[in-house]
Amino acid sequence: MTPVPPPPPSRPPAPPPPTSFGGPSEPGARIVERGFQRYEGPRAGVPQAIRSVTWQSIRSTLGLGRPARHKIFPVLAVAIAYVPAIAFVGLAVLVGDLLDPSEVADYASYYGFISAAILLFAGLVAPEVLVGDRRNGMLAMYLSTPLSRGTYLAAKAVAVMLTLALVTLGPPLLLLVGYTFENVGPDGPGEWLKALLRIVVSAFAISGALSAVSMAASSLTDRRAFASIGVVLLALASPAVASALVDGAELSPNWRLIDIFSMPFELVYRIYGEPGNFPELSTVSVVAVNLAWTVGGLVVVAWRYSRLVVAR
Amino acid sequence: MSRMVDASTLDPWDAVAVSPIIETTGLVMEFPSTRALDHLDLRVPPGVTGLVGANGAGKTTLISLILGLLEPSSGSIRVLGLDPTVDGPALRAMIGYGPERNVLPDDMVAYDFVRHFAQIRGLPRDEARSRASDSLYLVGLGEERFRALGTMSTGQRQRVKLAQAIAADPRLIVLDEPTDGLDPVQRDDMLGIIVDVNRNFGIDVMLSSHVLEEVERICDHVVALDAGRLVAQGSLADLAGILGGVEVELIDLADRPGSIDAVERRLADRGLSVGRSDLSLSVSGATDDELFDAVVATVAEAGARIGTLGRRRRTLDDVFTGDIVDADRSGVRQ
Questions:
Q1: Partners of B48 in the beta sheet?
Q2: CB contact under 8 A, B88 and A148
Q3: How much is the average pLDDT of B282-298?
Q4: Chain A from 122 to 161: CB within 8 A of any B CB
Q5: Does the pLDDT at position A34 exceed 50?
Q6: CA B53 – CA B227 distance, rounded (Å)
Q7: Nearest chain B Cα to A8, which residue?
Q8: Minimum-distance CB partner of B127 among A39, A49, A65
Q9: What distance lies between CA B114 and its chain's CA centroid?
Q10: Chain B contact probe: residue of A144, A147, A151 with most B CBs at under 10 A
Q11: Apex B216 CA angle, B215 and B218, nearest 5
Q12: CATH class, range B7-236
């Protein structure tokens, strides 16, 4: 066996340099030129690798640390999602005294103002997070690290969820905080926490379903544009098909459940205990179909990546 | 001297004590349309190892198996004492990998890229930051570390790939064609850095290349593949270098036909072993000094003329082509 040479001896401490004023430096101060050397310290495991990939994916999707052209679409989508919330809070600030709290704090219907922005964002985020790695070979780079396919996908799924949460969670939270400061929010700490819990659950329910569908589409094609267009077309076509089947062909109202665009937002109404836009559907079936889209999407992603031959 | 250690009793980060660092037994990798590796039996000791072979020889498939990106169809593989198919995450934390393809994201800053992969390979955040800078300085990109990767030259991007491979201080780095696309000066620089990484920091290196000359320059050991089969493996000293005997290349003189035949015959008459390949004669059977004297005298007697005369050498190219005029040497060729 070739013995591993010991790390090169560290340089002796340099004498304290003079300050720029020619006087003595601070006691013990010295310039350290460390350079590359062996690392003997602690090492983190796979959880840190997942966090690092998640954070990097979020940064990349939002265009952080990238040229300005990569920031345009995320900024637009986020702006569209927040503008109504800012307007509502502004309204509360200006005429808050005239508002009845029960009239303004409608967090469930808020998504009606921003559903298009959420959909477009969902169509953008997952393809950006997943497709590029497969196209440019970064997937093989990631899988040459402690990450496995499963942990890599987990990191990416969390990244998509958290990025989508920017538009599904942030605006209702802003509403809650704004209304609370203007005294038109939930009445009392208990109600406030209940509202917060509903906001968080609703946001992640929407993010989960749309993330899974968007990731599934992104796993089936190596072109970002195709994946994005596929997600948007699916979301736009499914309400039309559902409407044609229920309203046109007069089939069972349960055919509404194939409406992938509306069902996540319908679920939000049910979380708030409201009948929603499709009161003929049972809450159980709405929950079940959202769960099915979420799990089904993730199963497609897992199946696709398990069959992917990654070399180099 | 090799010291065999039971890897199962070691912390993965002590597995470097296991020799060989890569070992395969009957390794086969089949794809639906082709057999990429065919019953490979390898023992790769620590040091700098060159994985050589033409395109399609199976180099990349072997690297993918080392990294656990593929599962072998049959046979076994152990890297740093671990099985990549079983201990993949623990093993890959100890391996730095520099791919052949240009995978670097154009928009990303070199420093961010190196830091990101250092963190993924387990370094704490602060340590990853400082080591990203240190490794970029080591490969000569200290002043360029905050440039976007898309604005860098091919040579700089190759250096970034090397920097990210070493930043987390792995036990082994696997570099796929690290000099691909480099000009001769850049190639020299890159090979020098790779040698430094091994000699100064004790990081074992496996590099694949189809340029035999650069493997001969820096590698301690060689694994040669051809069409998925092992052509040769062993130390460079065993596979290539100076052999016993001398080699003389004669000039074919139009006015002295048969002079080369005469030299060959006269040398054999002196009791020496003579091999011939076209105009070259390989002579052995005495000390080198005696052989030089005998060749010069015989050529003069036969009225022939010497083109070149020197000790017999074997290059990796000879190993591949089997072109060496050497009947008496049984070696490491498989």
A1: B205
A2: yes
A3: 89
A4: 132, 136-138, 140-148, 151
A5: yes
A6: 8
A7: B200
A8: A39
A9: 25
A10: A144
A11: 70
A12: alpha beta
CA atoms in the 13 A half-sphere facing the CB of A241: 12
Residue B144 DSSP class = G
The packing angle between helices A72-95 and A149-168, to 10°, is 40
**CA-based nearest residue in chain B for residue A50:** B120
State the pTM of this model: 0.81
Chain A 234-273, residues with CB within 8 Å of chain B CB atoms: none
- The chain B residue lying nearest A140, using CA atoms, is B69
Bridge partners (DSSP) listed for residue B176: B208
Write down the domain spans for chain A.
Answer: 46-306
Q: In chain A, what is the straight-line distance between the N-terminal and C-terminal CA atoms, in Å?
A: 28
Most trustworthy range by pLDDT among A99-103, A179-183, B3-7, B320-324:
A179-183
Ordered by start, the domain boundaries in chain B are 7-236, 241-314
Q: Is B41 helix (H, G, I), strand (E, B) or coil?
A: strand
- Measured CA to CA, the distance from residue A164 to residue A159 in angstroms comes to 8
Residues in chain A: 312
First to last CA, chain B: 23
Tell me the average pLDDT across B204-219: 90
Reported as a single tens digit per residue, the pLDDT across A211-246 is: 999 999 999 999 999 999 999 999 889 999 999 999
Q: Among candidates B20, B9, B22, B42, which has minimal Cα distance to A1?
A: B20
Mean pLDDT of B46-51: 94
Task: Tell me how far the alpha carbon of residue A103 is from its chain's centroid.
Answer: 30
Q: What is the Cα gyration radius of chain B?
A: 24
Interface test with B, best of A10, A52, A60, A149 (most B CBs within 10 A): A52
pLDDT of residue B327: 32
Domain B241-314 fold is Alpha-Beta Plaits (3.30.70)
Residue B172: which pLDDT band, with cuts at 50, 70 and 90?
very high
**Do A122 and A111 meet the contact criterion of CB atoms below 8 Å apart?**
no
Tell me which chain A residues have a C-beta less than 8 angstroms from the C-beta of B63: 312
pLDDT (tens digit per residue) in B247-267: 889 888 888 888 889 999 999
Q: Is the pLDDT of residue A29 over 80?
A: no
Q: Give the residue-averaged pLDDT of A252-276.
A: 93
| Complex confidence, ipTM | 0.81
- Supply B310's token pair: 């020197």
Q: Which of A38, A70, A311 minimises the CB distance to B64?
A: A311
